[in-house]
Design brief:
With 1510 residues, the chain is mostly beta strands. The protein contains 7 helices and 145 strands. The protein is globular, with a radius of gyration of 38 Å.
């Protein structure tokens, strides 16, 4: 129900308002459900009485209810949330303002509808009880304010039962008789960031949160309560704590001053959050007067200040910023935003830049992998730097980097800065306006310029005055002050500073004696936009121009030239070379009426007119009388309804002589490119020229009336890719008197009534033109409006021609309030500019679905388009299985709340619910037919927040190559790519960084076929951390508590995605690699005591060790625990990847403990510990990761022990009691060598171990192998590891006890591992039988083998023999009963071995055994059956099962482990059956029955179990 804006619904006294009894009821103010649209329900006893589920109320204001404004019965069938968003309650009276109750007190929490109140206000309500009374529902209140309310006999919020969550709520100037918040003993309150100010508590009540003591009763109004006060809402007089400052800034609504305490040091630390400013008119000052002398220091962190959105009027005064690691000031706001830095100092910074000005919607995402210097789609914010100092910063690029912003630097000093990749002070890109006045540049060093570097084509946007430079140094070239270079990298010009002394006031050295000073010529002012209000200025500026200037007309300009002629302000007169007149948005600038629009005169060269629409001229719209040589070009111009003798006329003064096609550069040249002439009426010709060369490239003449279309004399005509539509002439189409012609690809339609549909030959005869099959110009002409694109694409015909639609560079096509453009014809191409590249900044934004592909079109192409802000999907690829589309060099960004950015789905797309429940994959119905094929390459998916995944493939075929996925959020499935309904996906050479997906951080596959090749994944997350950076292959679609399946590691160490062709600035090289030796600016730790002290101080959280120093460990371990909520600890080796730092000796190296701790070790070598090197004793929520680490020659019970229990100094690992869930430990590219551990190398008791691309070699005399897992919660995952020449006293390099779970892929390799022959020859994976124990004689259990044929880890290269003998475990008296593990093989391998079996059996048994071929091809056909004894049927084990009893071969349904097979994956069910005569393997197909116990010629030995051979 949509309430019309500005509507008031008045209820009579006693009226009970509106009863909501139907589920899925939504009430909203206006179409958008916003309070600002002023929808009011006024009066009555009640406003809403809700007895239903899935109810939403948006933007409503509730006033003057006499009993209760909102009455909710939360006890409903199938409860779903009841939501109030952006609502207001004002001046209500009665028992309560908002009441939640249940019909029965005996209800469970799951049967009650959750109630959500967000972004709402409670103002001046007067309740006899409580303002909000919650007696029966889970309640959430967020981002709301309670002010000037009165609770006469109760609390503002009364919580009787269940859980209430309150966050970001303020209580201001309320009057309460009891408490602000009352929590009964049957209720639970979860609160965060709530505060109070100036509340009045009467009757000695609690002015905060009152919690009823459990078991106590209230007698005669007296209750036993615990009262806790609220944090004050008002800001302190000054700030000296960084967290306090950032927390208060987050609550600011703008127009507020923040004073830093004089002498304060606000420390961020490496993981400190930046000060984020999103509101306007924020002032941060050092002391009340904002001066450097007050010494306010902001120090450390990666990013210190982030300014985004449209925050304008931001100001910093007198603040010192120091020692950031990436960017100190990220000025990431849009063009409306602005910030000023007055009297500030920036010193000691490293990273990408000190101040970076970029319009970056991705927020800090741009800083994850270094500065992203890309041509901006939109202008960035304005930044003024006044009287500041930049000193001793060592920056990878430049101290100040401007990409699209307006930057002013006044009276500022840059001294002793180093810009390794750009300049020593300021670098500006892409003609971004930059003004530098009265500033000084002293002793700075840059790669391409010592001071200022301009990466752009022209100097126009740069202004400088009274600047001084001295002793600056440049690494490339010899221009030390100002360098102008093209984005392509080529050097253009060098400029010097014009002052002989420093005038900044901060530092004032004198000029060196005898130093030569060159004063450059004056530089033009930045470009501006002319509109109707300053047309006179525009007219005179063009008329009086000295040449080489660009004049830009504002978008939407409309000028009556006839009126301006009467004032002497028309026509426009161009009489100097190098003049450019352009429309900011092509085709939106209109000049109408008058005799002529533009007059050209003199010898003018390089004159350009772009994007104008010229209509209704009574004489010649363009009148030119030119002298040789001249050159004029019109591009993207339209002439409509002009009525003179000609529309465009160019006359050359001088003698008559015939032109040739070879001397154009010395003569007059008129070029018209991508222009239209429509419905003009010319008594002579549309275009007329003499003594000139005319080039008509992609020009359309449509419905014009004239004698000739082109009349050219004594000149030359080039006519290519142009069209004549319904443009019949009274004479000749082309009248070329004494003029040569070159004509190619001309389209003719409806022009047959001309005397000559062609041009004249040398004798004056007619050379008829042959029409091309289509109008090429229509394909080349660019489109700048959504409606024009929709009309053009709707009218394409079904033919075999290519239909090309070109979007104008820098155009923004707004698809809001419009349905999708449907593409159903083959060879449809949508591209950005003529080259279809994303750097053309062609943006399609808004709308639900922007483009929908239907039917069976093939060769559909999207090239270079940026898709943004779609609410359902940017592209819905809904074609059938025969259709195909490609997406090349496109950008998908800022798509929020949609299903996906790119959705491959042929069914009915569920409508997005604007509020309430977020849709998921369960809302999609599987399409009957397979969907289309989509190929995505060289594209970027960034900052999208979608329901499923940025790319969601639902039963289609998807190929992704060389794409990047960054900072995306797939709220129900994956952060990058997902597949469902048995589709297929192939992802190659693509990169996934900082994405989040509920089920998988990168890729989720739930179907038939998934291939991942050469991809890179880092910093991604999923909800349970099981598959952050991997490819998750689900084995069960319907699940409770998460899917089951395999997380396959994505192992590339760097991003290998190829990028589409771009124009990088080669003058300013990219950020250099990290140095191998310790830089003076980097302080690394050189001793064990220094590391221990640094960690104990708790000031920082990242600790960098020096690579050339050995840290000799002491007897006591360094303890790592959580000191600050949300803080991780990292200990890493400084230097290039592959560098290691040695920690040696001591009893124990590190002891990790605590709840929820996260620790990273990178590049560390651990050696010669006497006890365990690492004791990982964190709880089940803690995580520990080792990257590129080594353990060698440690001599204790284990190198790494995972155990969350109590143990003394003297302990026996094998006797430790199971403690409950232990922490998770991830080993990535690590090695364990030459240990003599008494138990095992890695021992896991109750935790999770994920081992990837790691090696165990030459570990001797261990009791239980290389890895041991013990306990019900123990879990082991092995991916692509190597176990070589290890020696243990019990079976297996890997040893698992009852209850431990294991998952492996087929990339693990084992070679020459030794176990006691008296027990068993199981050398790979051994699982102890339930309830059994090992002794010197027996060790009952099952054995599994590693699959890989070699080890590919560098430094551990081994290959297995080509024919390894099959162990004979057939001795029924042996205490060990072996099994061969299940594995999947590729189709090729399966068929190869089946062929060999068939040949062998036919040869040996002479056809005794019948051979049948499978009825259909299937993957995973090569499973191996467990061996079983003739006497017993012990429990079997596979990687997807725990070691609990699986009832041997009598299991009827058993999940097949999903394993990597050369990039090929298959999901399926396995059924095994056993009898005395034969054994069959059934995988949805017929298989060959094979008798048991016969000799095999293929392998030369008896196969006791025939399935061993497969």
């Amino acid at each position: 129900y949509v309430i019309c804006p500005d509507t008031t619904i008045n209820l009579d006294i006693g009226d009970k308002g509106f009863g909501v009894t139907e589920p899925s009821t939504k009430i909203k103010c206006g179409e958008n459900g916003l309070q600002e649209d002023n929808c009011v329900i006024n009066g009555g006893s009640y406003h809403l009485m809700i007895n239903a589920t899935d109810v939403g109320v948006y933007g409503m204001t509730f006033v003057d209810a006499r009993t209760t404004s909102i009455e909710i019965n939360a006890n409903v069938e199938e409860p779903s949330s009841i939501t109030f968003n952006d609502c207001s309650w004002e001046k209500n009276m009665g028992l309560a303002t908002f009441s939640i109750a249940a019909e029965s007190a005996d209800v469970s929490e799951n049967s009650l509808a959750p109630v959500i109140i967000s972004n709402s206000t409670f103002l001046m309500n007067n309740a006899e009880g409580s303002i909000i009374s919650n007696g029966g529902s889970p309640l959430t209140i967020s981002k709301s304010i309670f002010t000037q309310n009165s609770a006469l006999n109760g609390s503002l919020i009364h919580i009787e039962s269940n859980t209430t969550t309150i966050s970001d709520v303020e209580f201001v100037k309320n009057v309460i008789s009891e408490d602000i918040i009352f929590v009964s003993s049957d209720a639970e309150l979860m609160e965060r960031d709530i505060c109070g100010f100036d509340n009045e508590a009467v009757n000695d009540s609690c002015d905060g949160i009152a919690e009823l003591v459990s078991g106590s009763l209230c007698k005669e109004g007296e209750c036993e309560l615990n009262c806790s006060s609220l944090m004050p809402c008002q800001a302190p007089s000054c700030f000296d704590d960084w967290e306090q400052l950032t927390r208060r800034m987050d609550k600011s609504v703008g127009g507020e001053s923040f004073v830093l305490c004089p002498g304060s040091s606000l420390l961020l630390g490496n993981d400190g959050s930046p000060l984020r400013i999103s509101e306007s008119d924020i002032v941060v000052s050092c002391g009340s007067d904002g001066t450097l002398e007050n010494q306010c220091l902001i120090i450390g962190g990666e990013l210190q200040v982030l300014i985004d959105g449209a925050a304008s009027g931001v100001r910093f005064e007198g603040v010192t910023f120091s020692s950031s690691k990436k960017v100190s000031i990220a000025a990431f706001g849009g063009s409306e935003a602005s910030a000023t830095f007055d009297g500030c100092e920036f010193s000691g910074h490293s990273g990408d830049a000190v101040v970076a000005i970029i319009n970056n919607d991705e927020g800090t995402g741009a800083l994850q992998d270094g500065m992203m210097i890309e041509k901006p789609t939109d202008a960035a914010m304005g930044v003024s730097i006044n009287s500041c100092i930049f000193k001793e910063n060592v920056i990878d690029f430049s101290p100040v980097v401007n990409v699209g912003g307006q930057v002013k630097v006044n009276e500022t000093t840059f001294v002793s800065n180093i810009g390794l990749g750009g300049s020593g002070a300021v670098t500006s890109f892409f003609d971004s306006p930059l003004s530098v006045v009265s500033s000084c540049f002293l002793e700075n060093q840059g790669n391409s310029s010592g001071a200022i570097l301009l990466i752009q084509d022209k100097i126009d946007s740069f202004v400088q005055e009274n600047n001084f430079g001295e002793d600056n140094v440049v690494s490339v070239g010899d221009c030390i002050n100002v360098v102008l270079a093209k984005p392509s990298g080529s050097f253009i010009s060098c400029y010097t500073f014009d002052s002989i002394e420093c005038r900044s006031g901060a530092i004032s050295p004198t000029i060196s004696p005898g130093m030569p000073i060159a004063v450059p010529t004056s530089l033009p002012s930045p470009r501006k936009c002319y509109g109707e209000d300053n047309w006179e200025t525009f007219f005179t500026d063009v008329r009086d121009s000295m040449g080489n200037e660009v004049f830009t007309l504002c978008e939407g300009l409309s000028i009556d030239i006839e009126d301006m002629e009467s004032k002497g302000l028309a026509p426009l007169m161009i009489k100097e070379s190098g003049v450019t007149i352009e429309c900011a948005a092509p085709s939106t600038c209109l000049l109408s009426g008058g005799s002529s629009h533009i007059v050209l005169s003199g010898s003018i060269q390089d004159v350009a007119v772009t994007g104008l629409t010229l209509v209704d001229a009574s004489e010649s719209s363009i009148a030119g009388t030119l002298e040789r040589p001249s050159s004029v070009e019109f591009e993207l111009c339209d002439w409509i309804n002009n009525k003179g003798a000609t529309v465009v006329s160019i006359v050359t003064e001088g003698g008559n002589r015939r032109m040739s096609s070879r001397n154009l550069e010395y003569e007059n040249l008129l070029t018209l490119k991508n222009c239209n002439f429509e419905e003009n009426s010319a008594s002579d010709a549309i275009i007329k020229g003499s003594e000139s060369s005319i080039v008509l490239d992609s020009v359309i003449f449509e419905r014009n009336t004239m004698e000739n279309v082109v009349d050219i004399s004594n000149g030359f005509l080039f006519l290519v890719d142009s069209c004549f539509i319904d443009s019949g002439t009274t004479s000749t189409l082309i009248n070329n008197k004494n003029s040569g012609v070159i004509i190619d690809d001309i389209f003719l339609s409806g022009s047959d009534n001309s005397e000559c549909v062609g041009y004249l030959d040398d004798n004056g005869g007619c050379n008829s033109l042959t029409s091309a099959s289509s109008c090429i110009a229509e394909k080349k002409r660019c489109i700048s409006r959504w409606i024009d694109l929709a009309i053009a694409m709707r009218t394409i015909s079904a033919d075999d021609e290519e239909h090309i639609f070109t979007v104008c560079p820098n155009a923004v096509l707004d698809a809001s309030n419009s349905g999708p453009i449907v593409i159903n014809e083959s060879k449809t191409v949508l591209r950005c500019g003529g080259n279809g590249a994303s750097d053309g900044n062609c943006v399609v934004k808004g709308g639900d679905i922007q483009f929908k592909i239907e039917g069976s079109p093939k060769d559909v192409l999207f090239s270079g388009i940026t898709f943004a802000e779609a609410s359902v999907a940017a592209i819905n690829a809904a074609g059938d299985r025969a259709s195909q589309a490609s997406v090349v060099d496109c950008i998908f960004r800022d798509i929020k709340g949609a299903h996906a950015a790119l959705l491959i789905y042929g069914g009915k797309v569920p409508l997005i619910q604007r509020t309430g429940r977020r849709l998921s994959i369960e809302d999609f119905t599987e399409a009957y037919e397979r969907s289309m094929t989509v190929e995505v390459s060289y594209s970027l998916f960034s900052s999208n927040e979608v329901n499923l995944a940025p790319i969601a493939n639902l039963k289609g075929s998807l190929e992704v190559s060389s794409c990047k996925f960054n900072s995306n959020n797939g709220t129900t499935i994956a952060g990058g790519v997902m597949e469902w309904f048995s589709g297929s996906i192939s992802v190659k050479k693509s990169c996934f960084t900082s994405n989040y997906g509920t089920l998988a951080g990168s890729i989720y596959a739930n179907g038939d076929l998934a291939v991942e090749t050469e991809c890179f994944s880092e910093g991604n997350q999923n909800s349970d951390q099981r598959c952050n950076d991997g490819l998750f292959l689900a084995t069960a679609r319907e699940f409770d508590g998460g899917p089951t399946g395999l997380c396959v590691a994505i192992v590339n160490s760097e991003c290998g995605a190829k990028v589409a062709p771009a124009v990088p600035p080669t003058v300013a090289p990219t950020v250099p690699v990290r140095p191998t030796s310790v830089s003076p600016q980097i302080q690394c730790i050189q001793s064990w005591s220094a590391l221990n002290s640094s960690i104990s101080e708790g000031i920082q959280n990242t600790f960098t060790l020096c690579p050339d120093k050995d840290l000799l460990a002491g007897e006591d371990a360094i303890i790592l625990n959580r000191r600050t909520e949300g803080t991780d600890i990292a200990i890493e080796c400084y230097g290039e990847s592959g560098e290691t730092c040695l920690i040696k000796g001591g009893r124990r190296h590190f002891h990790i403990l605590g709840e929820g701790i996260q620790v990273l070790f990178r590049g560390i070598k651990f050696e010669d510990s006497k006890d365990v090197s690492i004791l990982a004793a964190g709880d089940g929520n803690s995580k520990l990761r080792f990257k590129d680490c080594e353990w060698t020659a440690n001599k204790g019970p284990a190198a790494v022990l995972i155990y969350n229990g109590i143990m003394g100094d003297e302990y026996d690992i094998e006797s430790l009691k199971y403690p409950g869930k232990s922490m998770s430990v991830n080993f990535d590219s690590c090695s364990f060598t030459n240990h003599t551990a008494t138990t095992g190398v890695v021992v896991n008791i109750g935790g999770t171990v994920i081992m990837t691309t790691s090696a165990f070699k030459s570990n001797q005399d261990t009791s239980i192998g290389c890895i041991q897992c013990v306990g019900e919660d123990s879990r082991l995952e092995l991916y692509d590891n190597c176990f070589i020449e290890n020696d243990s006293n019990k079976p297996g390099a890997v040893f698992l006890t009852d209850g431990a779970e294991m998952r492996v892929n087929d990339g693990n390799f084992g070679y020459d591992n030794k176990v006691p022959a008296t027990l068993t020859n199981c050398a790979d994976i051994f699982t102890l039988a339930p309830g059994e124990m090992c002794n010197a004689i027996t060790c009952p259990g099952t054995c599994s083998t590693f699959d890989a044929k070699g080890c590919g880890i560098s430094g551990f290269g081994y290959a297995a023999p080509s024919l390894a003998p099959i162990p004979d475990n057939g001795n029924i008296n042996s205490p060990f009963i072996g099994t061969i593990k299940l594995e999947e093989t590729s189709l090729f391998t399966s068929l190869f071995f089946l062929r060999n079996i068939c040949v062998a059996l036919l040869t040996v048994f002479f056809g005794i055994c019948a051979v049948f071929s499978c009825s259909k091809t299937y993957y995973g056909a090569g499973e191996k059956k467990e061996k079983k004894s003739d006497e017993s049927n012990p429990p079997s084990k596979t990687e997807s099962m725990s070691s609990r009893e699986a009832n041997g071969m009598n299991v009827k349904e058993q999940e097949v482990v999903k394993q990597k097979q050369g990039g090929l994956f298959r999901r399926g069910k396995r059924k095994t059956e056993s009898n005395d005569d034969e054994t069959n393997l059934v995988v949805d197909a017929e298989c060959v029955p094979i008798s048991k116990g016969e000799p095999s010629a293929a392998f030369g030995q008896v196969a006791e179990d025939p399935m061993e051979l497969s």
